[in-house]
Amino acid sequence: MGHGKYIAPPEGQYQVAAGQVLNLQFTVLPGESRDVDVRIDLNGPGAEAHLKGLYLCKADEKVNFHIVMHHRAPGCRSTQLFNGIAGGTAQVRFDGTIIVAPDAQKTEAYQENHNIVLTDTARVETKPQLEIYADDVKCSHGATVGSLNEDELFYMRSRGIPEAEAKTLQMLSFLSPVIPAGQEEEIEKAVRSL
After folding, report:
1. Which secondary-structure segment (H or E) carries 41?
2. Side-chain-side CA neighbours of residue 49 (13 Å)
3. Sign of CA dihedral 164, 170, 174, 178
4. Cβ contacts of residue 118 below 8 Å, gap of 6+?
C-alpha cells in the first residue's frame, strides 16, 4: 500500500449472525478522495461489529463516511472509532448512525469520531447519531474537532524537541488507537508529509 491508496473492505451491507464477530478497518491516506458507505445489521444474539477508521487529508481531498449500525437482536455489541487529520482545503464528513431495535435488549454500542484540523481552510463535519427503541441498553456517541494541543507542543519544545517533530509526535499519538497493525511506518511517513 502506498500514499493515495485506499484500503478497506468492499462498501455495502454486512449481515452478522448470532455469535459472529465482524472487524473492519478503513484507511485513507493523503491524495485520495473517497466515499465510504457501509451498513451493518447485527441479526443474531451475541453478534458483534468493531470498526476502526483513519484518514489523513493534506490537500483538497473529500472524504465522506456514512455508517449505519443496526442492532436487531439482543445482546449484541458494536464499537466504532474513527480518527482523522485534515489540512489544506480538505473536506471530511462523518455521518454515523446506531439504531437499536425494540427487541435488541442488552445492546452495547459505542461510536466516536475525533478530528484534528491543521488549517483554517480545512473543513470537518461530524454527525454521530443514536436511535434507541429498547430500554435496557448501554450506548454512547461522541465527536471532537480541534487543533493540535499548544500546551503539549510547548512542553515538548521546552524539552528540546524541534517544532516539526513535536507536531509529528502529537499527530502520531492521536492516531495510534486506529493505526492498523503492520502499517505504523507507512502512517508515520504520511503524517510527516502533512
Report:
1. strand 34-42
2. 27
3. positive
4. 58, 85, 86, 87, 147, 148, 194
For the stretch 43-78, pLDDT in tens is 999 999 999 999 999 999 999 999 999 999 999 999
Domain ranges of the chain: 6-147
Question: Could you tell me which residues are beta bridge partners of residue 12?
Answer: 38
Predicted TM-score (pTM) of this structure: 0.89
Collect all residues with Cβ–Cβ distance below 8 Å to 125 and sequence separation of at least 6: 92, 93, 94
The residue type of 164 is A
User: How far is it between the farthest Cα atoms of the chain?
Assistant: 57
Degrees, nearest 5: CA angle 121-151-126: 40
- Cell numbers at residue 107, please? 445492546
**DSSP secondary structure code for residue 131 in this structure:** E
Residues contacting 177, CB < 8 A, separation 6+: 52, 81, 83
